[in-house]
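Now for one specimen:
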Amino acid sequence: MRAYQLPQATGIDALVEVAPPMPKPGPRQVLVKVAACSLNYRDLAIALGTYRMPTKPDLIPLSDGAGEVVEVGAGVTRVKTGDKVAGCFFQRWPGGEPSQTVQASALGGSIDGMLAEYAVLEEDGVVKIPAHLSLEEGATLPCAAVTAWHAMMVHAKLIAGQTVLLQGTGGVSVFGLQLAHAMGMQSVITSSSDAKLTKAKALGANHTINYKTTPDWEKSAMEFTRGRGVDHVVEVGGQGTLARSFGALRVGAKISMIGNLSGAATELNPGLIMGRRANIQGISVGSTQMFEALNRVIAANAIKPVIDKVFGFDDVKAAYQHMASGAHFGKIVIRVG
């Protein structure tokens, strides 16, 4: 079969096409014919050697992929041949609190990922995708959409009428915007691009802020909430953004720490936490049960993931370069089959 491998994390050009043998599912595993994959910022960081976690040697990259089950191992009952499924970011986190070994089952990092024509996945590490989605759309969900769900619905426990602040227009923030709109929440979203903010408005954003022209964006968010502050911030920046996130919060609100796209938040002052009585939690994607709960909402509201661009399997490096450019709005997809 065809696949891509990252022999060493030295840059996008290190990606090479390889021809590994066809995998075979073991007990409680399934073989998926992969139709499409999608990129996350993590995948770029792994290729560049800047990811915070160790990765396996000669890695087949990408956590996100979807396809059709073509073979099942002994004892499999959750899915059957012919089902259209997406792989779960963590192959061994069915639900509940994550165990110490969950990280060791991270696709495209600790173990081989989805950038191949076929992939063997755990029975508890796949979910059926909503019927109204294509496999390309289903491939966008495993990391960014589940992360947004975990942050907003599991950590923050947002309800209709509350307000969430989303930073930027990457995958997590755009999915968060779509969830907020579908579930009756108010959304504030930031970007350095007015064109991207216009697209966010079209997806239902209630208040948009260009952080280049309005560097004190926390004040704009506070004004939007008439001085009360937002109920939740999905914090994807880190350095230069976290302190401002506190400035946008209401007393007793929550911040979900997703990543450090702008670097480590070394300016964190514990007094900010006390001053806002804030709750901060690190979020690392989510469990299979979270993915299934997310899919029920996606299906009930006919949510369609925003795909920026689709690349062919021969153009994988171009897909990575598009991610690195930061020009995208929504998800970057690679068509495999």
Observations:
- The chain has a mean pLDDT of 94.
